[in-house]
Amino acid sequence: MSLLTLPSSFRPESFTPQLLTNQRASSSPGGGSEEVVDMLNDRWLFSLTLPRGPQHIAARNEAFVNGLRGQTNTVLLWHFVRPQPLGTYRGALTIFLATGQGADAVYLQGGAAGQTLLAGDMIGVNGMLLQVLTDCVADGLGRIGVPIANRLRRATVVGQSVVWDRPSVPFRKVSQPGFQYFTGYAEGVPLDFVEAL
Q1: How confident is the model at residue 29 (pLDDT cuts 50, 70, 90)?
Q2: Is the pLDDT reported for residue 174 higher than 90?
Q3: Which residues are CB-contacts of 6 (< 8 A; sequence separation ≥ 6)?
Q4: Distance (Å, rounded) from C-alpha 191 to C-alpha 189?
Q5: Residue 56 CB contacts under 8 Å (≥ 6 apart), including other chains
Q6: All domains of the chain, ordered by start, with CATH?
Q7: Which residues contact 55 (CB under 8 A, 6 or more apart)?
Q8: 188: number of Cβ within 10 Å
Q9: N or C: which end of the chain has fewer CB within 10 A?
C-alpha cells in the first residue's frame, strides 16, 4: 500500500464533497418513537470530474488512476473549491484546549485578534479533515473556538498543529472509471474517492 502523489495534470472541473455519517436509526414498531445513535467515524466522499481535454493530459491522469490499483493505494486530497479558508484566520496554528473523541468543536490559537473562520471553511487536525460549522471570530488573544460539522474521530492535544492551507488527508478511489478516447481528445471522467481511515 503506497501513498501516491497527485499529478499536476489532475484538475477537476466539478467537485462534490459529501460528509458520510455513521449512524444507526431504529423506530418503535408500535409507538412511533425513533432513536438515532451516532457511531462517530464520519468521513468524506469526494466525487469529481476530470475535464474533457487533450489525449496527452488524459494519458497522465489515466496512468495515475490506474496506479491507485483500485483501493490499494491512497492519495492526499483536499477541498478543491476551498483549498484555503474564506475567513481570514492564518498563522502557525495549534490546538490550545484538548478535546476528546466525538467532540463537535476544536480550539485554536496562533492567529490574530478579530480574524475569522467562516462556515464551510476546512482545516486539518490530527489526520482529520474538519469543516467549520458556523462563522467564528478570534478573541483578543488570537484564540478561536471552532464548531465543526463532522465529529472528531480522534482526540486533539494541546500544541498539536492545525493546517489551514490545503489541509489534506489520504483518500481511496472507490469508483471504476474508464478513459474514453476520440481522435484528438479524451472525454471527461467521473471519479469517487472516500477518506481512508
Answers
A1: confident
A2: yes
A3: 64, 75, 76, 77
A4: 6
A5: none
A6: 3-78+169-195 (3.30.200), 94-163 (2.40.30)
A7: 181, 184, 185, 186
A8: 15
A9: N
Backbone angles phi, psi at 78, to 5 degrees: -140, 175
Angle at the Cα of 102 from the Cα atoms of 97 and 107, rounded to 5 degrees: 20
Residue 174 DSSP label: -
What is the model's pLDDT at position 14? 97
Instruction: Tally Cβ neighbours within 10 Å of residue 5.
Output: 11
How are beta strands 122-125 and 162-163 bridged, if at all?
antiparallel
> What are the pLDDT digits (tens) for 37-86?
888 889 999 999 999 999 999 999 999 999 999 999 999 999 999 999 99
Percent of the chain with pLDDT over 70: 100
Write out the three cell numbers for 34.
425513533
CB 96 within 8 A of CB 141: no
